[in-house]
Amino acid sequence: MGVRAGRDPPARRRPSTHGGGAVTGTHTAARAARPGRAARVRDLMPSLVLAAIAFTFVTGETLPVGLLGDIAAGLDTSPGVVGLSVSVYAATAALTAVPLTRLLARWPRRRILVATAAAFTAGHLLVAAAPSVWFLMAGRAVSAVAHGLYFAVAMPVVTRLAAPEHRGRVGGRIIVGGATALVVGTPLVTLLGQAAGWRFAALAVAGVALALAGMLTRTLPSLPVSDDAAAAGGRLLPTLRFPGLPVVLAVTLLVVGGHFVFFTYLAPYAAQSLDVRGPAFSAVLLGFGLASVAGSALGGRLADARPVAGVRAATALFVVVPVALWASGRVDARPLGAALLAVSGMAFSLLVVLTVLAALRRVDDAHAETANAVHGITFQAGILGGSALGSLCYRIGQVEQIPLLTATFGAVAFLLVLTTRRAFGPRHAAPGGDPHVKEPSGPG
User: Fold this and answer.
1) pLDDT over 90 at 175, yes or no
2) How far apart are CA 212 and CA 361, in angstroms?
3) Max intra-chain CA distance, the chain
4) Where do the record's region annotations for Disordered lie (predicted)?
């Protein structure tokens, strides 16, 4: 290259700017370390982009929540009818995730994830152009199909790419993305819709989703599917036979059901028991959301370091906090009650992360997406059951007793966690060398 062997070009013999001395082996080591840092950034990017897509999907899912009146006026219908689009979205996402996972079992995972972002974009374009409520429902359904499939595939993909000791932390980023949407995305899209119109808000969500789809094509490897994984993909009954997975799903159902008994009627409870309403309640909701984001981030780290101790501590917190919240209402300790509302958000988000990562640990890579989809369906079932039970308490005038009901659900979950350690621990080889539950040799 124009330089004789044994002699460095002058630029390489200049003093180091880091130590004030001549260029030595230390400088060479620093140069060698740079590709390592670049590789870490390159490995980080897919999980960050996937987390950003999760943020966008949940923001789009909740778009009608703050704009019910605006959408209803624009489509000449009632807010109650527009509100049904939220239920249609949840039901569609839950019902289509497993069948689509099986149908597309042979597709490379990047193709699926990019396709879901594109379909989500198309759904929101339909929403933005909707001339009637039926077009609105159709657009929401298209986005919901993409939503269910995305969350079934994204978590297994990021954990597959990560080193085994970092899988919990990396997988937790997807949940942090979704949790952050409730704190930041929903208020932002509501403000945008109020300022520029709900159709423009839907267009903005579509534009962000499309941009992220383009980023995903550049940051995520193709991730082709092995023949074994393709053959196993989407098979529900074989997935449910993995040891420990039914216990994880049962704990998930109890925790989500118990949480949504209370969360669905958080506003009337805060008003009746704690006299927290108006701007004070908005501040409590912000604290609840921020605590949920923190819990999601902490859950990923606990899943890597202390999965069993983490889930036990989080479940105990899920029991104790509602009881303390109920007691604070009885003794008129309103500031304590407001703080406990935020802590309840952290306890729940901890358990969401710990249970979904436990579900992935219980199965092999070939069944991970189906296990994740089933966990999502269980989550939706918990929401439906818990909100229905909360509605019953509201109708019979027992809102103030709802935290005790949440604690009862949590107590049953805690007993399951205490008596089934292996369901939440690291992945182990099954007796007799069952390949379904042995630790894989590497990520993917």
Assistant:
1) no
2) 28
3) 91
4) 1-32
Give residue for tokens 């309640």. 281
What is the enclosing helix (H) or strand (E) of 96? helix 79-103
The rounded distance, in Å, linking the Cα atoms of 104 and 15 is 57
When computed from its CA atoms, the radius of gyration of the chain, rounded to whole angstroms, is: 24
Per-residue pLDDT tens over the stretch 392-440:
888 888 888 889 999 999 999 999 999 887 888 776 433 333 333 343 3
- Collapsed DSSP state (helix, strand, coil) of residue 388: helix
Which stretch of 40-44, 76-80, 109-113, 163-167 has the lowest confidence by average pLDDT? 40-44
* Assigned CATH for 42-225: 1.20.1250.20
Q: What residues contact residue 156 under an 8 Å CB cut-off, 6+ apart?
A: 360, 365, 368, 369, 372
Task: Answer whether 42-225 and 233-444 agree in fold.
Answer: yes
With 60 as the cut, is the pLDDT of residue 27 above it?
no
pLDDT reading at 319 higher than 60: yes
Residue range 315-331: mean pLDDT, rounded:
92
DSSP 181-202: IIIIIHHHHHHHHHHH-HHHHH
Cα 29 to Cα 85: distance, rounded to the nearest angstrom: 58
Residue 309 structure tokens: 């101790």
Can you tell me the mean pLDDT for 18-37? 42
Q: Which amino acid is at 152?
A: A
307 closest CA partner among 251, 238, 260: 251
**Model confidence band, residue 124 (pLDDT cutoffs 50, 70, 90):** very high
pTM value is 0.70
Q: What share of the chain is helix, strand, coil (3-state, %, to 5)?
A: 80, 0, 20
Q: With CA atoms as reference, report the closest residue to 233 among 121, 131, 110, 99.
A: 99
Q: Decide if 118 contacts 10 (C-beta within 8 A).
A: no
What is the domain partition of the chain in residue ranges? 42-225, 233-444
Record: fold of 233-444: Growth Hormone; Chain: A; (1.20.1250)
DSSP 8-class letter at 20: S
CA angle 293, 295, 300 (to 5 degrees): 105
149: nearest Cα among 184, 180, 111: 111
- Structure confidence at residue 206 (pLDDT): 96
Within 13 A of 123's CA, how many CA atoms are on the CB side?
A: 24
Looking at 141-150, 202-211, 365-374, which range is the least confident one? Answer: 365-374
pLDDT of 11: 44
